Automatic annotation (TrEMBL):
Molecular function as annotated in GO: sucrose synthase activity
Residue ranges annotated for the Sucrose synthase first GT-B domain, each copy included: 257-549
Keyword Secreted annotated: no
Catalytic activity: an NDP-alpha-D-glucose + D-fructose = a ribonucleoside 5'-diphosphate + sucrose + H(+)
Domain (Sucrose synthase N-terminal) ranges: 12-111
UniProt KW Nucleotide-binding keyword: no
All residue ranges annotated as the Sucrose synthase EPBD domain in the record: 146-234
Residues of the Glycosyl transferase family domain: 560-727
Keywords assigned: Glycosyltransferase, Transferase
Protein name per its UniProtKB record: Sucrose synthase
Pfam families linked to this entry: Glycos_transf_1, GT-B_Sucrose_synth, SUS_EPBD, SUS_N
InterPro entries: Glyco_trans_1, Sucrose_synth_GT-B1, Sucrose_synthase_pln/cyn, SUS_EPBD, SUS_N
EC number(s) per entry: 2.4.1.13
Organism phylogeny: Bacteria, Bacillati, Cyanobacteriota, Cyanophyceae, Nostocales
Length: 803
């Protein structure tokens, strides 16, 4: 960046930069983010009649495109530039435009504080860098999120460099595996790694003499004589293969061998999935708007985990011992359950043998809180006591400790931290969505937003849980480090300030192998291609078709003058981020779209008074206003209802029957479950370019990624596709088939669960052999919890108690 700044200041382009800063200054603001900076520069180029190349290719153009934030101070300008993914730099440009200097993040945070609060005392600095220093670290940004592959390579290199030492560590790790006092894998007769290697040879020789399909129960006593306990396999062939894999790992360690062997190790039997806020139930509940997707994710993950663990236990030869997997979704019990099952302490997860929803009530602080649903922004004061109560309940249900605790969203991750820290259990963190990057400048102006959102507690909880976690799984690469044009959700925690509270000078190591890209799947029993006619229920198809296009119910707004037009389908909740109103405005401004298409919306509310907060109420009213403004009556249909999963799956297929399209118009979407559902159903799908959908819809021409801030451009993209389909009827079919295959091949719960369990085992082993930094890190997290988090939530509690 030094050369780029120098090129600008040593040329006529310095005048351009000076004029651009002057334009920004006229706004009276201090802080500017990338989109506003780019738009201001584009307007400047147009008004100054600069040649077309200047916007992108000039030195000042390149500098502006690398810039993600500008802060204007009286004497200078501050630039946050990002020359590469996961690499942000701070540069200070003097007010006379004569010199520039690279600065530390701390210096920028100090400036930000001064501009928000005129007087700034000394402030706490949070620095997590020492806990990652010296640990194995990914060096190529392209490999961020592939921690499992990195650790496999690292561990194999260590085995090669010091085989005897690592053989002893492998022996010790396997020797500690047991289930309810039952020794697994290695018995007392084997006392060292060297002896283990010798006994493996004897065991393989014995197994070569057995029929391959001989059940383990028939020869287990002979293996025990050699020092091997149950867990290696359920047949002679399976046990021999597993022992041969381990032998190969000892003498010629390779990542593929390590991964295959670890996948066979029976080390996970009990799993907790923590998902707290919202209504966590099954078919007729599935959360409220703010948790709808998360509840489905957790339910499907639980089913897949229980099924996979059952399969692993059987293949390991442990089912004859009566060992069974046990999966628990941990959530809160809500006494005033509004006709749902959320007041039941224990509920079995459908289509499982031993997966359960365990509901634990909030302690008696305030009956209004204890007995009723409350927003995710108000939940923070009750999590510590909830975790303590939940720990007792879990130990009772499991009759022992879990092997893995998975947190979901910020609150679930904090509880997962408290539980795993207390129980000494492997912790996995799943953010789903981090609020900080969704609310612009939310950290800078947190004090103005505190009454409604309590971001001081939430952002502190995020810092604690993401650093305490043994591993983090994300649905997309962008979730971690964004794109060349956008900062990732986790990357936004790298450094930031919360004025008068603390500075984060290094909040997370994005190159840590703890980050792992493990996308979720989609339930293919419910969501499958429209072309699978034999799997569809004709009666259900008729019902759903009538619901979408013709039936009149109080929860349905609008009729279609011409129901045979190509349908544009969209499903979203009423929040500004989901941006349903943006889609309606895009449709309303395009006469060409209206002539060719109908717009069908599936949302959960119809009237502003049904919303739970003013923002959502405003979106509902705005949608009504847009329908009137653009005279969309007869062209739009708005279903204000929650369809069952079965009906929803058929709704996608009915739209596909009519060669419709699906549009996801969010301003930002960390992943997008509905995108998976629409694509696997065979619907050509257009989705926001801001977030994980860039990876889901991976096409060379970028024809299906849309910019929701560019209404005309989006309408033109959709129209271009429709015109191609009208000229070439096979076009729609080809895209439909491509999208179905894309999801079927890449986004499956089977693959997700395999990766999740592999990560659990590898990181459990890693923590066993390199625990030093974890203890210090956890003490640091405890300090943040007690000195920052708890005082913040006590203020929320005072408000709830009326104090």
């Amino acid at each position: 960046m030094y050369e780029l700044f120098q090129a600008v200041l040593n040329s006529d382009e310095k005048t351009v930069l000076r004029q651009l800063i002057d334009v920004l200054n006229t706004s009276g603001k201090h802080f500017f983010l990338r989109n506003e900076i780019l738009q201001t520069f584009a307007d400047y180029c147009q008004q100054s009649q600069k040649p077309a190349y200047f916007y992108h290719s000039s030195s000042v153009g390149k500098l502006i495109h690398y810039t993600h934030e500008i802060i204007l101070e009286n004497e200078c300008s501050w630039f946050v530039v990002r020359p590469r993914i996961a690499n942000q730099e701070v540069w200070q440009l003097k007010g006379d435009f004569t010199s520039f200097e690279q600065m530390t993040p701390q210096a920028l945070l100090d400036v930000s504080d001064r501009l928000v609060n005129r007087y700034q005392d000394r402030i706490l600095e949070i620095d997590l860098h020492p806990f990652y220093e010296g640990s194995p670290r990914i060096d190529d940004p392209r490999n961020i999120g592939q921690g499992l592959a990195f650790l496999n390579r690292y561990l194999c290199s260590q085995l090669l460099n010091d085989p005897q030492h690592w053989l002893e560590l492998l022996y010790l790790a396997l020797d500690k595996i047991s289930y309810e006092g039952i020794e697994l894998l290695i018995g007392d007769r084997i006392t060292s790694g060297i002896q283990l290697a010798k006994q493996i040879k004897l065991a393989i020789k014995f197994l070569n003499q057995q029929p391959p399909e001989e059940p383990y129960e028939k020869f287990h006593s002979q293996l025990q004589e050699l020092g091997f306990e149950p867990g290696w396999g359920n047949t002679a062939a399976r046990v021999r293969e597993t022992l041969e894999l381990f032998e190969r790992l000892i003498y010629s360690p390779e990542p593929a061998i390590l991964e295959t062997f670890v996948a066979r190790v029976p080390a996970v039997f009990r799993v907790v999935l923590v998902s707290i806020h919202g209504w966590v139930g099954q078919e007729d509940v599935l959360g409220r708007d703010e948790t709808f997707g998360q509840v489905i994710y957790v339910l499907e993950q639980a089913r897949s985990l229980e099924n996979k663990l059952r399969e692993e236990i059987k293949l390991a030869g442990l089912d004859f011992l009566g060992i069974k997997p046990h999966v628990i979704i941990l959530t809160r019990l809500i006494p005033n359950c509004e006709g749902t099952c959320c007041n039941l302490r224990l509920e079995k997860v459908e289509d499982t043998q031993n997966a359960w929803i365990l509901r634990v009530p909030f302690a008696e602080f305030n009956p209004e809180v204890t007995n009723n649903w409350i927003s995710k922004f108000e939940i923070w004061p009750y999590l510590e006591t909830f975790a303590a109560d939940a720990q007792r309940e879990l130990l009772t249900q499991f009759q022992g400790k879990p092997n893995l605790i998975i947190g979901n969203y910020s609150d679930g991750n904090l509880v997962a931290f408290l539980l795993s820290h207390s129980l000494k259990v492997t912790q996995c963190n799943i953010a789903h969505s981090l609020e900080k990057p969704k609310y612009l400048f939310s950290n800078l102006y947190w004090q103005d937003l505190e009454e409604q959102y309590h971001f001081s507690a939430q952002f502190t909880a995020d810092l604690i849980s993401m650093n305490a976690a043994d591993f983090i799984i994300t649905s997309s690469y962008q979730e971690i480090v964004g794109t060349p044009d956008s900062i990732g959700q986790y990357e936004s925690y790298k450094w930031f300030t919360m004025p008068q509270l603390y500075h984060v000078v290094d909040g997370i190591d994005l190159f840590s192998p703890k980050f792992n890209f493990v996308p979720p799947g989609v339930n293919e029993n419910i969501f499958f291609p429209y072309s699978q006619k034999s799997d569809r229920d004709p009666h259900l198809c008729t019902q759903v078709h009538e619901l979408l296009f013709s039936s009149e119910e109080p929860q349905i707004f609008g009729h279609l003058d011409n129901p045979h037009k190509r349908p544009i389908f969209a499903i979203a909740t009423f929040t500004p981020i989901k941006n349903l109103t943006g889609l309606v405005e895009c449709f309303g401004k395009s006469q060409a779209l209206q002539e060719r298409c109908n717009l069908i919306l599936l949302a959960s509310k119809l009237h502003p008074d049904e919303a739970t907060n003013p923002e959502d109420a405003g979106e509902i009213q705005k949608l009504h206003d847009l329908i009137n403004q653009y005279h969309l009556h007869g062209k739009i249909r708005w279903l204000a209802m929650r369809l069952s999963s079965r009906d929803l799956g058929e709704a996608y297929r009915v739209i596909a029957d009519l060669q419709g399209i699906y549009v996801q118009f969010a301003r930002f979407e960390s992943f997008g479950r509905c995108i998976l559902e629409a694509m696997i159903s065979g619907l050509p799908t257009f989705a926001t370019q801001f977030g994980g959908s860039l990876e889901i819809i991976e096409n060379q021409e970028n024809g299906f990624n849309i910019n929701p801030t560019d209404l005309e451009g989006t309408a033109n993209k959709i129209l271009d596709f429709i015109e191609k389909c009208e000229l070439h009827p096979q076009q729609w079919q080809e895209v439909s088939e491509w999208m179905t295959k894309r999801i079927h091949n890449r986004y499956t719960w089977h693959s997700h669960t395999n990766q999740l369990l592999l990560l659990t085992k590898i990181f459990s082993f890693w923590n066993f052999i390199a625990p030093e930094n974890n203890a210090a890190r956890d003490r640091y997290m405890e300090t943040l919890f007690h000195l920052i988090y708890k005082p913040r939530v006590e203020k929320i509690l005072e408000k709830h108690m009326g104090g």
